[in-house]
Write a structure and sequence with these properties.
The chain is mainly alpha-helical and about 475 residues long. Helices cover about 70% and strands about 0% of the residues.
């Protein structure tokens, strides 16, 4: 079940909402919490129930270790290390074992058989979230929750599958607060509005770009200059509106239950440098990597060389967290080098023009997404060669009389022959640029939101348009992580 499905919108969400507030209204708060936990586990099991024991086992083990850290007189540091090793072992076995064996076979010319494992949904997210909880328990930042409260904290369905990666202190006080156990019509209005915006981003915009990205990356064997740029930009905007749409729908769904999720996405394509980008893109993942990897390694406290090596290691881990593949590792390394170069550049005191700074940042991000998306090295090389004109340049026939172009071995013909589109894809890219750079994001809309007849009409309109596109039923990209 995904947010952008009939089952979620018209069956799961209304039933879960009604049952939760009905039980709370009748002072059955534990049953209400239990119903939310059950609904979240049902939501998780919809894809493959075989992994339900995995998440339950992970939750039980982490709760037990955190209980020992918080309540027992046993040494806390060994318990903390035990908990982290348990979580990393679970993540490593299911997500990285096949990748590890594949590289062992390649290096040593062996033939170890792979585990035929399907990556458990959301394992990267609930693993990091529970590592953060153990670390906060070790530091004394949390009090011992009941098992039921902890289960809801980990599995709360709006943020379970693709984040945000939340802290216990951000969530549990909201579930416990008495005022949040009653229906808030303001939050319903806000939640439906933001959910509708996210649904539109996903099924109308992101899923449209997915067709062109899929064609360029996985179908076409060679790409001309324009085709390669259309392909890379299509994925760049698919990922943006896919993840932004998910975030909006997560925020909207949570608001129905009077829960406010932390900021996780803040117009990242407006960034004028790579550091700013990581303060705007997947904010809670950046926070986790900073607080639980970069700073514990020493951060910037031990000199420039150590700071740069810590940054490089942190971004490599961030790349590997996204996927078990060398393309993800290279993607992480690219961002590591970029942020190190930005630090060095910042020390010179030289400031670029705002447009040039944005232009360089955006194009670096667009280029790096090629490796993030590519299934194989060959796919990435194909796109990069095309983007630099190494696989040929095709321009419209109307350009053939331009003298300078005729002298450069340029082919004149159908530019978008392989996309079954001409002006449509260019128009979509132009609109996407405009929306990313000039529209208010969901956080700004929520902050300044005032119900009115116009906004009600807008909700109905974009929701109706979105429903017409639900038949695509394309999963969110971050579900793969």
């Amino acid at each position: 079940m995904i947010f952008s499905s009939y089952e979620f919108i018209f069956i799961f969400l209304p039933i879960t909402f009604c049952l939760y507030f009905y039980l709370n209204k009748n002072k059955l708060t534990k049953l209400a919490t239990g119903s939310l936990a059950f609904a979240s586990l049902f939501f998780y099991s919809w894809w493959n129930i075989i992994y339900l024991p995995l998440i339950l086992g992970s939750v039980a083990m982490n709760y037990f270790i955190s209980h020992l850290i918080l309540m027992s007189k046993l040494p806390k540091k060994p318990l903390m290390i035990l908990g982290v090793l348990f979580n990393l072992s679970l993540l490593g076995f299911f997500k990285y074992s096949s990748f590890f064996l594949q590289n062992i076979n390649l290096v040593f010319n062996t033939s170890y058989s792979f585990f035929n494992l399907i990556l458990p949904l959301a394992i990267s997210f609930f693993t990091f979230q529970q590592i953060a909880f153990l670390a906060d328990s070790f530091k004394g930042y949390v009090t011992k929750p009941t098992f039921l409260n902890y289960l809801v904290f980990v599995t709360f369905f709006p943020q379970l599958i693709a984040g945000p990666i939340v802290h216990h202190k951000e969530m549990m006080p909201q579930f416990i607060e008495k005022i949040n156990k009653s229906i808030s019509y303001k939050n319903i209005y806000l939640g439906v509005f933001i959910f509708s915006i996210g649904l539109f981003k996903k099924v109308v915009i992101a899923d449209t770009f997915s067709i062109w990205a899929l064609n360029g990356f996985d179908v076409m064997e060679q790409l001309s200059l324009v085709e390669a740029w259309v392909t890379s930009l299509s994925f760049t905007f698919q990922l943006y509106f896919d993840f932004s749409g998910y975030t909006d729908m997560a925020i909207g769904s949570a608001l129905l239950f009077n829960i406010k999720l932390p900021l996780n996405f803040n117009s990242p394509y407006k960034s004028q440098n790579i550091r700013e980008f990581w303060k705007r893109w997947h904010i809670t993942l950046s926070r986790f990597l900073r607080d639980y990897i970069y700073i514990p390694m020493g951060g910037n406290r031990k000199g420039s060389f150590k700071m740069y090596s810590n940054l490089f290691t942190t971004f490599l881990i961030g790349g590997l967290w996204h996927g078990a593949g060398w393309t993800f590792i290279l993607w992480g390394a690219m961002h590591a080098f970029a942020i190190i170069l930005h630090r060095i550049w910042s020390n010179t005191g030289i400031k670029l023009n705002n447009f040039i700074a944005w232009f360089l940042t955006f194009n670096f991000i667009n280029l790096s997404w090629v490796f993030f998306r590519a299934e194989q090295w060959e796919d990435a090389v194909k796109i990069i060669k095309g983007m630099f004109g190494l696989s040929g340049v095709v321009l419209p026939i109307s350009f053939q009389n331009i003298y300078l172009l005729k002298q450069n071995k340029i082919i004149f013909g159908e530019v978008f022959a392989n996309f079954n589109s001409d002006t449509e894809v260019i128009l979509w890219i132009a609109v996407a640029f405009f929306a990313c750079l000039f529209f208010k994001n969901s956080n700004q809309i929520l902050f300044n939101y005032k119900p009115s007849g116009k906004t009600l009409f807008l909700i109905v309109f974009i929701f109706a348009i979105s429903l017409m596109h639900l038949d695509k039923n394309v999963e969110f990209i971050y579900f793969n992580f």
